[in-house]
Design goal:
This protein is of the alpha+beta class. The protein has a domain at 63-190. 22% of the residues lie in helices and 29% in strands. The chain contains three helices and ten strands, in the order ααβββββαβββββ. Helix 1 (31-52) runs parallel beside helix 3. The longest helix has 22 residues, at 31-52.
Length: 190
């Protein structure tokens, strides 16, 4: 029985010639990262549909899901984007206009109680899109400060901790010019 493709001997990346053909059946080490970025982009697309008013026609059920990421439009007009069924971002409306962006820690943490790498990647993609669409100023990011092993929602020097032990939700006013933190929520003691 012959295979539909030619089996190639493994050659370490440093030993390959620049234009050498690599089998289409080989899986690069970064394939998981590309898949994560694709899902992040699809979440951004769903958020854009909500913001431009085409959500109802594209999602008559009121929800969207791809792999571990979902978006739900609620009866109050807000949109919640979740990762592993835990909210990471909510857009809240007042009188039909988006007035607030709520950033959540996502409920999945590293050993220091910071949001997981995947949560930070999803949030940064969504925050970048909100900046590009002029709902937030540029450079609003979820960042890690490795000197203190702490995660922050930040824009330049203005920041608030986003961590399981300190703050699990940060509400930001929609304003394309000024970064204004409206409210910070502290986790409830069990």
């Amino acid at each position: 029985m012959s295979l539909p493709y030619k089996v190639q001997e493994y050659v370490p990346p440093m030993a390959r010639k620049v234009n050498e053909h690599i089998s289409p059946h080989s899986k690069p080490a970064s394939a998981g990262k590309r898949a994560n970025k694709m899902v992040t982009q699809r979440a951004i697309d769903a958020m854009r549909q909500y913001l431009d008013g085409t959500w109802e026609q594209d999602h008559p059920s009121g929800s969207w899901q791809l792999n571990n990421t979902s978006a739900v439009c609620h009866s109050d007009g807000s949109l919640t984007i979740s990762l592993h069924e835990k909210p990471i971002l909510r857009l809240e409306k007042h009188k039909g206009l988006v007035c607030r962006v709520c950033v959540f820690d996502g409920g999945h943490y590293d050993y220091d109680g910071n949001p997981s790498h995947l949560t930070r990647e999803r949030l940064n993609g969504l925050l970048d899109a909100l900046s590009a669409l002029k709902y937030l100023p540029d450079n609003v990011k979820v960042i890690m400060d490795y000197d203190y092993e702490m995660c922050y929602l930040a824009r330049f020097e203005q920041k608030a901790a986003l961590n399981q032990k300190y703050h699990n939700r940060i509400d930001v006013q929609c304003n394309p010019i000024k970064f204004t933190i409206e409210k910070i929520y502290t986790p409830q003691a069990d």
